[in-house]
Amino acid sequence: MFKFFKRVSTVVGSELNSMLDKAEDPVKMLDQFMREMAEDIRESEASVAKMISNEKLLKKKFEEADKMVQKREEQALKALESGNEDLARRALEDKKTHSAQAESFKESYTRAKADADMLRAKLDEMKQEYNEMKIKKDTLKARAESAKTRKNINRSMSSIGDDQSRQGFDRMEEKVMQLEAEAETSDDLSSSSRSLDDELDSLGSNDVDDELAALKKKISKD
């Protein structure tokens, strides 16, 4: 009658620990065991229901047989009171038969009730353990997700400072410095070009000065 609890013993035993050690994803393994436990509970509930039904049936038969015992005794008494000893004897013989049946049904009912009570207690224990494992599984699942997240973040952070990344940034820095040097060279060339233009412009300004001087000379003559 305990076969319905076979997977529970596996879950709480060393076999589970061994399987979890070998599992690539312990959370998935725990999910599988939870599904198996839930199936066990459903099977056990059906078995307990049958045991309870059998218990009730035996109780009913015992009560019916016991009533017949009481009835035959009353009938035997009435038969004697009416002077019919043979009928009273037959009633007492039938009473004896029903009394044996009642005793047998009572014994079977008592045993069935004890078995049903034990199975009900085991089932309640199983459900309690299932709920406890479900809470623990949810906690372990959250911890596993947190550990995976930390692992991914640490992997990303470690890749940022590796030699390959530093070399890439060094190359980028060299390119930026080269562009800055080219820009400075371009500025120097532009500045040199503007100086030459200024000198050439200053040459043109001498003609204006000469013309201005001529006008002043003309005014003085007038």
TrEMBL record:
Residues 136-148, 163-177 have a biased composition (Basic and acidic residues). It comes from the Bacteria. Pfam families: PspA_IM30. Residues 136-208 are annotated as: Disordered. Belongs to the PspA/Vipp/IM30 family. This is Phage shock protein A. It comes from Salipaludibacillus neizhouensis.
